[in-house]
Amino acid sequence: MRNMKATMGWAAALALCTTGSALAQTGLPTSQPKLLQIYREEVKIGHAVAHEKTEAGWPAAFEKAKSPYYYVALASLTGPQEVWFVAPFESHEALGESMKFERGNAALAAELARLQGADAEHLSGLRMVQAVARKELSHGEYPDTAKQRFYAVTTFRVRPGRGEDFAAAVKAYGAAMARASTGGSFRVYEVIAGLPSPTYLVFSSVTSYAGFDKALMNGEAVWKATTEEERMILQKFSTEALIGSDTQRFELNPAMSYVSAEVRASDPDFWMPKKPAVKKSTSVPPQQKTPAAPGSGSR
Fold this sequence. Notes:
32% of the residues are buried. The protein has helices at 2-14, 48-55, 57-64, 92-104, 106-119, 163-180, 211-225, 228-241, 261-266, 268-271; strands spanning 35-43, 71-76, 82-89, 123-133, 150-158, 187-193, 199-206, 242-258. Strands 1-3-2-8-5-7-6-4 form an eight-stranded antiparallel barrel, surrounded by five helices. The chain is an alpha+beta fold and 299 residues long. The model is unreliable at 1-8, 15-25 and 288-299 (pLDDT under 50). A hairpin with a 5-residue loop joins strand 6 (187-193) and strand 7 (199-206). Helix 3 (57-64) runs antiparallel to helix 5 (106-119), helix 6 crosses helix 7 (211-225) and helix 6 (163-180) runs antiparallel to helix 8 (228-241). The protein has ten helices and eight strands. The radius of gyration is 25 Å and the shape is globular. The longest helix has 18 residues, at 163-180. The chain has a single domain (11-25, 32-265), classed as 2-Layer Sandwich (Alpha-Beta Plaits), CATH 3.30.70.100.
């Protein structure tokens, strides 16, 4: 029973999926990117608001420089207080071009250096991770990134040499998901730098937090749809190949994300929220005292 619960636990993590459309707005990927560059910033306790204000300077700087390299900021809702800045690329060459763009623009480089110094006041740590897509393991339609508001990211740490067991388990789960017809999807990435190997990241997303309720129900439906053989594959992976899994939930933060003008225009209330108007004070300032006339008895 304990092994079966462990199997269901990691399989349920894959069930935190989205039913979003495959169409995406200009400036964000319309299919699973081949490479992700992830900056995981650990934010000091009590510095979340100040950190967001500082981070808003980065999208402003990139927009001023007309950078074509976009990213989304995912602020943690569970686990450590972190922000993941996730940038999609189609190759290492494209990632290298983005580095050249930043370093080749003197004004942009200077502003980013200033922002890095300011950002350090609010961070307790930083980890940079690169991961490549495992499209053959991903399942379902790619969602409209511009409409996703919440994410679940499950990190799987696998024993060395047991990557094929992970692949077999994910394929078994995907087959069951297809039979259950939940309409869900998830994207699988394998970490190639920045974390111990083998490590896998599974991304899923929803357009509203209520979507996680449906995701949990989908997970139950998928589990019921698994065959005896698939359950054996899942259990074997959980008991023999899996070191541990960790699911965290995130909220997409528009102020810290850098997206195109087209994406912002697609939902201005979300991407460009109006700041609350500052009420002007209507109180009348106290009248100044009139100096006492000579000889009036004033001391």
